Amino acid sequence: MNHSHLRSPALRLLLAAPLCLAGLTGCGTAAGSTPAARPPTATASSAPSASAAEPLAGRTVVLDPGHNPGNVDHTTEINQQVDVGNGHKECDTTGTETDAGYTEAAYTLDVAHRVRALLRAEGATVILTQDGDRPWGPCVTERAAIGNNAHADAAISIHADGGPASGSGFHVILPATVVAGQADTTAIVGPSRRLGLLIRDDFKAATGEQFADYVADQGLDTRGDLGGLNLSKVPKVFIECGNMRNAGDAQRLTDPQWRQQAAQGIANGFTAYLTGDAG
User: Is-catalytic flag, 240?
Assistant: First the structure.
């Protein structure tokens, strides 16, 4: 039926109402009237959130690649004594190497780069204490200060050990309670232990490496003689990823694929710690 002869807006609205209530498109909405129901549309909550895509957004991690490739040429500088709170130690050392000459300094820098890439992909801000871009050092005191000044959420010193050739495996070093001079680890002992346990478990799961059989207990060691831990004001641990003097460990440490697994294990530990996911 043709209703073109009806000039009343009210009548036209009433006649159009059944079409709008049926959800058909093209219905107008008169001023002051209730809009017709629309099919559900995607909302912001149905899309991946930034925190889900980048769980470490807003968090800062400091990676401390042990030693420095240039230390070997600057023994005078790295042998100077520095105050670590409860004593004095060398500024830094050259580190160890495999029997074939693959250095600990090269290993730690490579793994730190790999961990940095993984953590950045999760949104973290990642700071390296050195990137092979300085002739030597930094001293252990400066390594700790870098994490403190950055107000890092967590930090790790990455190493590979130079133990007896008969010994193999990895271990994580936790800070002891040290209150002496400028050192006071009271506030970080608890959170550092949680960080260390997560990194230990995730590193083992990612690499298959056994706990060290020549040092530590169940992959954990607590020490009060390391300046990088004594002077830290943020949760921090060391990891000795394997024994470079052991033939089996050396083969793994020099394998790029294994180093990627090592980096993944360390990154997984940080993610679990910083997101509160211990599962």
Answer: yes
